[in-house]
Design brief:
This protein has 138 residues and is mostly helical.
Length: 138
């Protein structure tokens, strides 16, 4: 496997662990990632949808043995996920600065949304790139 794929797999594992850790610490594990999507900011929703679209098209390209397109679309899905996560974190930091010091428990749902957007992009991009790498190996 390529180094990029291994790095993305590690990052995805850390994101999932952080999502579960925050959820467990603040008793929010009953909230699903889809519920987080529904409550997200419209801009973050758009980046999540674009991430899903790029990731799914990348998976289809990987299955059709279009390795280069699959890798590009996989990285595009990662990029949209990172962009959505950065935007959501920017909005969280802006709100905290406007209100003043708040506890982490207050911002935990927003942090989980950030991890949701990032994990979605990384997960689908990773799947597309792994399938492309495995199809190349045959």
């Amino acid at each position: 496997m390529r180094k990029t794929t291994i790095i993305l797999a590690g990052a995805f594992a850390l994101i999932v662990a952080a999502w579960v850790g925050i959820g467990a610490a603040y008793e929010m594990l009953t909230v699903s990632p889809f519920d987080m999507f529904l409550s997200a900011d419209p801009v973050v929703k758009l980046t999540m949808m674009l991430s899903v679209l790029a990731g799914l098209i990348g998976i289809v390209c990987a299955l059709a043995k279009q390795r280069r397109a699959a890798l590009i679309l996989g990285l595009t899905a990662v990029g949209w996920g990172v962009l959505g996560a950065l935007y959501n974190e920017l909005m969280t930091q802006s709100a905290v600065r406007a209100v003043g010091g708040v506890s982490f428990a207050t911002t935990a749902p927003s942090r989980m949304e950030t991890l949701d957007a990032l994990g979605l992009g990384l997960g689908l991009g990773l799947i597309a790139m792994v399938i492309a790498d495995l199809r190349k190996a045959r």
